[in-house]
Design a protein that fits this description.
This protein is mostly helical and 116 residues long. The chain has helices at 4-8, 13-19, 26-51, 60-80, 83-86, 90-99, 103-106. α3 (26-51) crosses α4. The protein is elongated, with a radius of gyration of 19 Å.
C-alpha cells in the first residue's frame, strides 16, 4: 500500500518512478535526473500550496494521485523537451544565451569538408 510516510522516505528519481509505477527509460533518467526532480519539486509545491499542509490533508490518497501525475508530467517534460526549454536552474536562466556558441566560432569559420 502506498502511503504518505512511504513517499516521504523516497530519495532518488528511480525510487519515485517505481513507487508510482511509472515506466521510464533509464537513459532518460541518467541524463536528466536532477531536472526531473527539480521539475517534480516545482509541481509538488503547486499542489501543496493549493491543498494546504500535507499532515492535515483529509485525502492523502488523492494527494498521492496528484503527486503521481506531477511526477509523470515532470518526466514527460524532459522526454519531450530539454532542460534548456524549461530553464529550471538559475545558471540556465541567467547564462543560457552565452552557452550557445555558433559552430563557425568553434571551427574558425571553416565550412564543412574544408581543412580535413
Amino acid at each position: 500500500m502506498k502511503t504518505i510516510d512511504a513517499f516521504l522516505r523516497l530519495t532518488t528519481a528511480e525510487e519515485y518512478l517505481e513507487f508510482f509505477d511509472i515506466p521510464y527509460d533509464q537513459r532518460v533518467v541518467d541524463v536528466n535526473r536532477l531536472h526531473i526532480l527539480k521539475r517534480f519539486a516545482e509541481y509538488l509545491a503547486e499542489i501543496d500550496a493549493a491543498r494546504g499542509p500535507l499532515e492535515a490533508d483529509p485525502d492523502p490518497g488523492g494527494r498521492l494521485e496528484r503527486y503521481r501525475d506531477a511526477l509523470w508530467r515532470a518526466y514527460r517534460d524532459l522526454v519531450e523537451g530539454t532542460p534548456l526549454d524549461y530553464r529550471m536552474f538559475k545558471v540556465l536562466k541567467e547564462h543560457a544565451p552565452e552557452a550557445v556558441v555558433p559552430l563557425s566560432r568553434v571551427c574558425g569559420g571553416a565550412e564543412r569538408g574544408q581543412g580535413e
